[in-house]
Amino acid sequence: MKGEYLIISPCRNEEKYMRKTLESVCAQTILPVLWIIVDDGSTDKTPDILAEYQKKYDFIKIVRRDNRGHRKVGAGVIEAFYDGLKEVAIDDYEYLCKLDLDLILPEEYFELLMKKMKSNPRIGAVSGKPYYYANGVSGSLISEGCGDENAIGASKFYRVSCFKQIGGFIKEVMWDGIDGHRCRMLGWIAISWDEPEIRFIHLRPMGSSQKNILTGRVRHGFGQYFMGSGFVYMTVAAIYRMFFHHPFLLGGIAMWWGYIKSALTGVERFDDLEFRRFLRKYHWDCLLKGKKEATKELNKQQQSIWDPEQPGFSFPKL
Questions:
Q1: Within the chain, what is the greatest distance between any pair of CA atoms?
Q2: Which range, of 63-72, 162-171, 214-223, 278-287, averages the lowest pLDDT?
C-alpha cells in the first residue's frame, strides 16, 4: 500500500528562516511519511538545526551535498532536489512535494491539498498562495500576486503519476513554469488557490533569494525568454507588473530587461519546439481572453487527451 506524501526540501544557509518551516510542517494535521531535507553545502548553522530536528522526528532524513561555494539559483535547487529523490522509490508514494525552507504553512495545509486532489483525479499539481510581511518580519501581509494556473515554486505538491508523466523538473531557472505548462499539454490540471485555509507566508519573497528582488525580476525575464514566451506577451506582462505588483515600476522594467537582454545576447531557449508552440498559443489566448478564461478553456479542451496511465515523458537534455 502506498504512503500518502513525501516532501523533498533543498536548502542552503537557511538558519534565519528554517525553524519556522520545520515547526509548521511538524505541526501538520497529516504528517509526511518521509521528509528528505537536502543541505546543499550550507556554511551557517543550518546543519546543526537540521541535526536537532532529525533527532526529534523520525520521518526527517538529511542528505548533505558538498559546498560549491555559492548559491546556484534554478539549476542548483533542482540538482539538490534530485539528490533527495534518489534516496527513495518514488512509486511508494501517492504525492510528492518540493518545499522550500522559508515558509510558514497553516496546520491543515497538506490535508486540504490532498482532499482537493482526491476530489478531482485530473489535478496533478497544486498549492496555496504565498503572502509576505509588508515590513519583512511582521505586520500586514501582501500577496505575491501569483496566477492561478500553476502551483507555486516554493511549494509544489504533485500527484506522483503526473510528476512522472511530465518528466519532473528541468534544471534551469524556469523549472517552476515549464512544469505547469507540461501538465496542461498532457491533460493534467495545475492550479493554486487563494483560500485563507491554505495561504502560506513566504518569509523571503519570491525572486529575492539571490542579492535582491530586482535581481530576481531580471532573472524571471531571462526565464521567460528561455521558456519560449513571445515578445508581445512579455511586454504586456511587464507593464502589468509595473503598476500592480511590488516593487512597482522597477519590478516590471527589470523583468522586461531580463527578457530583452537574453534575446540580444542569444541565450539558448528551451529545446522543445512543440512545447514552445503550445506555450505561445496559450499566451495569445491569455492576452485575448484573459488568463482565467484561457486556462479554463484549455483545461476543458485537453481533457480528451488526459491518460493517467501514459508512460513518463523525458525532457530534452540542455
A1: 54
A2: 63-72
Residues 26 and 104 in one domain: yes
Domain boundary among 202, 235, 258: 202
Residue 313 has pLDDT above 70, yes or no: no
Q: Which residues pair with 123 in a beta bridge?
A: 189
Q: Does the structure show a pLDDT above 70 at 151?
A: yes
- Kindly state whether residues 14 and 155 are assigned to the same domain: yes
Domain interval for residue 262: 213-305
Task: State whether the Cα torsion 141-146-149-151 is positive or negative.
Answer: negative
Q: How many Å apart are CA 317 and CA 307, to the nearest integer?
A: 25
Mean pLDDT along residues 110-130: 98
DSSP the chain: --EEEEEEEEESS-TTTHHHHHHHHHT-SS--SEEEEEEES--SSHHHHHHHHHHH-TTEEEEEE---SS--TTHHHHHHHHHHHTTS-GGGEEEEEEE-SSEE--TTHHHHHHHHHHH-TTEEEEE--EEEETTSSSSSEEE----TTS--TTEEEEEHHHHHHTTS--SSTTHHHHHHHHHHHTT-EEEE---GGG-EEESS-TT-SSS-HHHHHHHHHHHHHHHT--HHHHHHHHHHHHHHSSSTTHHHHHHHHHHHHHHHTTPPPPS-HHHHHHHHHHHHHHHHH-HHHHHHHHHHHHGGG--TTSPP--PPP-
Q: pLDDT tens for residues 156-180?
A: 999 999 999 999 999 888 999 999 9
* CATH number of the structural domain spanning residue 97: 3.90.550.10
In angstroms, rounded to a whole number, what is the distance separating the alpha carbons of residues 6 and 91?
Answer: 11
Instruction: Indicate if the alpha-carbon torsion angle 45, 51, 56, 59 is positive or negative.
Output: positive
Res. 211 pLDDT band, cuts 50 70 90 = low
The CA-to-CA distance between both ends of the chain, in Å, stands at: 36
